[in-house]
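Entry 14. Structure prediction run on the chain below.
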Amino acid sequence: MAITRWQPLRDIEMWEPIREMESLRDEMNYLFEKFMHPGNGGSKGITFRPAVEMEETDDEISLKLEIPGLDIKDIEIQASEDGVSISGERKSETKTEEKGMMRSEFHYGRFERSIHLPAHIQNDKVKAEYHNGILSLTLPKSEIERKKVVKVNVS
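Output returned:
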């Protein structure tokens, strides 16, 4: 068991129960998709869920998604004020072998990932880059979010 420092007021100002329930729902959906998926590439359902890294600064939120083996034309990105949805499809390559056996553990088919953001963004100024299987999104925060924290001088 790890020992952690007790910080009684650490999360009280940012606690958003609805967002936490949405996050729990997303994680439960991920578990069901991961463990209940039949595993064959011929399935019409969602076949995998890309890994995500999120970094937040005062001015923007940066997301990186790991989706190798796709062409940029197979990826669709939609951004709203408080979330981003990324979907796409990895097309299967048909290979036949006359002698021997072929085994594939690659995931083919559709994927979709919806990410709820910790702050509102300017969804008309989102920038996306795809290089070496990594989709990088730069999401500038809205002016209201940038001005939330104000330094108070003590006299």
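The helical segments are 17-36, 143-146.
Filed with the rest of this week's runs.
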